[in-house]
Design brief:
This protein has 111 residues and is of the alpha+beta class. 68% of the residues lie in helices and 13% in strands. The longest helix has 21 residues, at 89-109.
Length: 111
Amino acid sequence: MDSSQEDQQNTLNFAEVAKAAKIIRAVKHPLRQRILNVLNEHEDISVTALYRELGIVQAVASQSLGIMRKEKIVVAKRDRHLMRYSINPGQIKAISAFTKNIILTDNLTSC
């Protein structure tokens, strides 16, 4: 491998790092983790049913869902006058693979 290829491998795309951090931050929050657990138990669920099940106010549920929707962690669809949410399995798999890779790499370099 020549030095230019090594330089490319050892540089970070800071825009990609920032995007990854936003995605991880979106799932790191304890309330959003609770929301994801509830969504995991249902194929999809309305905001009303979700905030009632969690015992939180609607605005808090909607704000958390909005953050996760922006990062494509959940998917929203309108059902008449209700918004229904479900997990985006592709994004969850990607997040899981990313975090496992980071942990694996960290474990390999700390040995």
